[in-house]
Write a structure and sequence with these properties.
With 514 residues, the protein is α/β, with parallel strands linked by helices. It contains 17 helices and twelve strands. Among the domains are: 203 residues, 3-Layer(aba) Sandwich (Aspartate Aminotransferase, domain 2), CATH 3.40.640; 143 residues, Alpha-Beta Complex (Aspartate Aminotransferase, domain 1), CATH 3.90.1150.10. Helix 7 crosses helix 9 and helix 15 crosses helix 16. 41% of the residues are buried. Bound molecules: pyridoxal-5'-phosphate (PLP).
Length: 514
């Protein structure tokens, strides 16, 4: 039985099995001619349900063969140049290899006595990131599984700093009473994990106050001032302002400098969610777009987005490392307060924790930060060129200018009244519901967003995302692959157009039959 446990006598097995696993992945990856092979949920479910988890194969090679048939065959490939749907990146080779190394050693990052040099490496990376941000020497931080957790941890610190301060006021109300008056200010385009964090933190249901955005989707500073003034009249306490550096949809960077100014005036914790845009920290040409981030109290950076790291790899970086004390719990069995060396669990919401920092470390040591930043620059440049094409293409409507590497657009149904396949039924549909005119055209374009996204995905030949901007649905390219070319994207645009035409033709046939 123990022949499957890693020890000195099984290192040959380790090398053989890791090679076999890598080879299976590599073969599928190299052979992937499109983002994924179409297969229904039922089909996949049926194949997997035949596997009896109580009847092991006793052979790793056989297990990999089975995986190849049941999983890898159906994987979605994020390195494929026509995979354009999500903020999930192709990954750096050194980082993938480092994952194996981290698992081999099975470091647990919670205490010094389990991690030693790994703790120093992790702490160096956090300091390095803090320096990139421009934080003072007292900065610190923590690795987390993702931006969702980084935002949670940042807002927990903000809450506890705020409650600690209010506890010192004369005749302070009990903590739950004070907590009920706390508000988090974030733009309507901020990530939903801000609300999730608020719920987990036990704050009031309506504690996240949306701050209106300007036409570009950036948090409006005058509106922020108004909301703050409004809270004051209601005796509510602003606990944190969240600015986003790279919103998930539009890639908008909120005006960090101005928001910092307002936060300083009001003594409010300033959190910057740079889950997406944080990779600008290593951009050789666009670092200036994050100006003002150095004035934040906390920053979320997702290395598993535009830093080309495998999931999960995120960090929350804080201006003042002492604020991390709010996460500390000293358990007798684990991390007595008088340990001379750092126990990272004292700063984390997790206990047992993977050495996620290793892959980033190895990537930096192998490729260097400029190479990562240059890859992010490349996809930002590509987005600009794609937007330029889309704007000039009568088949599509560009929804807004890209800010980072997303492009938002809609398919434009051919004009009502012409002879194109889609014209007549769409006009009929539009006039039956909303009358004719530009609004009707808008509605038809909107109506096709979801079916198009789905139909394109069903082909397996490309993936494109859908979202909503200013209350209207649209299609979205998330460009995170520096290998994707303008021609690849053109191919996808053609596919979208053909798919849309055939959907609308179907629609007409269906209506005719009905
Ligand atoms: C992706 C994203 C998150 C969530 O991060 P996860 O790593 O998916 O948990 C938070 N904020 C922004 C702006 C994001 O784009």
């Amino acid at each position: 039985m123990s022949s499957f446990l890693l020890h000195a006598d099984t290192v040959t097995d380790l090398m053989r099995d890791v090679t076999a696993a890598a080879a299976a992945g590599a073969a599928r990856l190299a052979g992937a001619r499109q983002p994924h092979e179409p297969a229904s949920h039922d089909e996949i479910d049926r194949a997997l349900s035949r596997i009896d988890l109580d009847a092991p194969l006793h052979d790793f090679g056989a297990a990999v063969d089975e995986l190849d048939r049941t999983w890898l065959r159906h994987a979605v490939w994020f390195h494929h140049p026509r995979t354009l749907a999500h903020l999930n990146c192709p990954v750096a080779v050194p980082a993938v290899a480092a994952e194996t190394l981290a698992a081999t050693v099975n470091v647990s990052m919670d205490t010094w006595d389990q991690s030693k040099a790994a703790t120093v490496m992790e702490r160096s990376l956090l300091t390095w990131t803090a320096q990139r941000i421009g934080f003072p020497d007292i900065a610190d931080g923590m690795f987390t599984p993702g931006g969702t957790t980084s935002n949670l941890q940042a807002l927990m610190l903000a809450r506890d700093e705020c409650l600690e301060r209010s506890a010192r006021t004369p005749h302070a109300a009990p903590r739950p009473v004070r907590a009920a008056s706390l508000r988090i200010l974030a733009s309507a385009e901020s990530h939903f994990s801000v609300s999730t964090a608020a719920r987990i933190l036990g704050l009031d249901d309506d504690c996240v106050v949306p701050v209106p955005v300007d036409a570009a989707g950036a948090l409006s500073v005058p509106a922020l001032r108004r909301v703050l003034a409004d809270l004051a009249t209601q005796s509510l306490t602003p606990m944190a302002v969240v600015a986003t550096a790279g919103t998930t949809d539009r890639g908008t960077i909120d005006p960090l400098e101005d928001v910092a100014q307002v936060c300083a005036q009001h003594g409010v914790w300033f959190h910057v969610d740079a889950a997406y845009g944080g990779a600008l920290l290593v951009s050789p040409t666009r670092r200036d777009r994050l100006a003002g981030i150095e004035r934040a109290d906390s920053v979320t950076v997702d290395f598993h987005k535009a830093w080309f790291q495998p999931i999960g790899c995120s960090a929350v970086i804080v201006r003042d490392g002492r604020t991390l004390r709010h996460c500390a719990h000293h358990a007798a069995y684990l991390n007595p307060a008088d340990t001379p060396e750092p126990n990272q669990v004292d700063r984390s919401l997790q206990t047992t924790r993977r050495f996620e920092a290793l892959k980033l470390w190895v990537t930096l040591r192998t490729m260097g930060p400029d190479a990562i930043g240059a890859m992010f620059d490349a996809v930002i440049d590509l987005a600009a060129r794609v937007a330029h094409e889309v704007r000039a293409d009568a088949r599509f409507e560009l929804v807004c200018d890209p800010s980072l590497s997303t492009v938002l657009f809609r398919w434009t149904p051919p004009e009502a009244g012409n002879d194109d396949a889609a014209g007549a039924p769409l006009a009929a549909h539009a006039s039956s519901t909303t009358g004719t005119g530009p609004d009707a055209v808008d509605e038809t374009a909107d109506r096709w967003v979801r079916p198009i996204r789905r139909a394109v995905w069903d082909t397996g030949r490309a993936t494109v995302a859908e979202t909503e901007v200013a209350g209207r649905p649209c299609l979205k390219f998330t460009l995170l692959n520096p290998q994707t070319t303008l021609d690849d994207v053109r191919e996808v645009l053609d596919l979208i157009h053909e798919t849309a035409l055939s959907l609308t033709a179907h629609d007409r046939t269906g209506k005719a039959r009905a």
